[in-house]
Fold Enoyl reductase (ER) domain-containing protein.
Amino acid sequence: MKAARYYGPGDIRVEQIAEPQAKAGQLKIKIAWNGICGSDLHAYLAQVTKFPTLTEPNDLSGETLPVTLGHEFSGTIVGVGDSVDGKFKVGQNVVISECYSCSHGDTNVCPSTNFIGIGGWGGGLSEYIAVDANLVHILPDSVSRAMIEPLAVAWHAMKRAPFCIAIEFEIPSLAFKIGLFLLKILRSFGPTSTIIVSEPAQIRRNLASKHGATLVLDPLNPNDPVDAAVLKATNGVGVDVVFDATGVQAAVDTALLSVRPHGTFVNIAIWEQRPSLDMNLVVFREITVTGSAVYRGNHPELLEAVAAGKLQGLEELITQKIVLDDVVDKGFKALINEKDKQIKILVHP
């Protein structure tokens, strides 16, 4: 079968590899769609610690490079291994949650945690994958097979902090593109809340306005600083919660200036370089600083909400659908070089 194999930064090759078969406790899945994630872009540009190397295997999977990429994927069950729960049937559409196990159940924050399509175990940028059945969620008939995984990341972030008034930053570069997903989830739970979005790319500002943002700001506009605009919009108080999906120092600095005393700062981004925090702002405003790492046990609740129609218009966030052979030029390079045009690119094998 075809698979996009990661050999290291700047080196992704679409190759023929052996088609997997479902072992005991596993399901074989024919891939329908795989989204290219911000962490995939990180890996394409620089070495990322969760990936194995050519000589050092991942401590969970035992694999070295190359590994098959892709963790934002969904598909259809085409094979059922022995000892699999009877609820799984050939022909069911499914989505995968890819955090691997932790003895305490805290898969997303375990120091050794890793993911299908990053640490090994196959990946969604291929024609088929065999995965442990306990990582598979059956999709309701009314739910699209695209983009459930990034929605789960945003859902988990929302659960990390209660909100009434929120500001969410989505700055391109290597941002997750999670910001727009988070906006839709926040709006579904807070139909009357004030939600302020800071975003330099016009295409995402337009979509933010369309999908429920109360106020959309351009952080590159020197005549309208984001923190000043936020204070004006909140009568000088500041926002209850800030979500940062950028991994950019300027966004963190602005976020801490924008959050009210006793407010909450939630970091979703993965950072290439260690950021700094103005700890005096944290101390004197008694700001709660927390992180949100992927998800843990959020899929059932999320799928129920999507099936109930609470999150509409997700397809509008897809800017391109491509085939696996074009994953580098029309996928990775497009996301890196066309930040003002691309939001979410899906790959079909």
